Amino acid sequence: xxxxxxxxxxxxxxxxxEPERAKAIETLDLREVEQAMAETFGDRLGRFVxxxxxxxxxxxxxxxxxxxxxxxxxxxxxxxxLHPVAGQGLNLGIRDVATLAHCLRDWIxxxxxxxxxxxxxxxxxxxxxxxxxxxxxxxxxxxxTTGWAPVEHAAGLGLWALDxxxxxxxxxxxx
Length: 175
Ligand SMILES: Cc1cc2nc3c(=O)[nH]c(=O)nc-3n(C[C@H](O)[C@H](O)[C@H](O)COP(=O)(O)OP(=O)(O)OC[C@H]3O[C@@H](n4cnc5c(N)ncnc54)[C@H](O)[C@@H]3O)c2cc1C
Fold this sequence. Notes:
By secondary structure, this protein is mostly helical. Helix content is 51%, strand content 7%.
């Protein structure tokens, strides 16, 4: 659940499920969505009041091993798509762009030069962060859906630790 721009305590919800279930949820009216959410989440967050029907969005994972192709550089979703479990996709894309801008700083003064070396450095610099974040979010999404309670509780504990322990969170945000 993420804070919604409307404010006043409104939240957006990202509800990940199997494609068939997602299609069924899309057809529910607002009261039925509230009912489905209450059945799924229980009442520990209080009673949900749903303002808009939920819209489906297909999730798939991709990681372009070579986001640099000549003078074309894929960044953000064009280079990688990942599970939204930890809300890392946009941040990862921004880190792509920031690193690219940094790498191109000197080249921009001499744009007639071949940027191949600079872009090669960019690709290498981004490899670890991109691979690590895609793998970690994939692992997290799998850990929450094993159907095996000890693993799912351990994953929940991990998220709680991330929320509660500032240095851990800072490390995750800095990956
Ligand atoms: C359900 C969900 C929840 C998410 N929650 C979070 C979160 O909480 N935090 C977070 O950091 N990330 C989150 N993400 C990931 C985030 O949405 C993406 O990482 C981010 O949108 C990537 O931005 P982008 O600009 O690279 O690509 P996109 O947002 O995909 O933008 C690409 C744009 O280009 C357009 N386009 C495509 N092809 C063409 C073309 N040929 N010509 C012209 N235009 C074209 C598309 O229509 C689109 O508007 C979430 C993703 C999903 C699916």
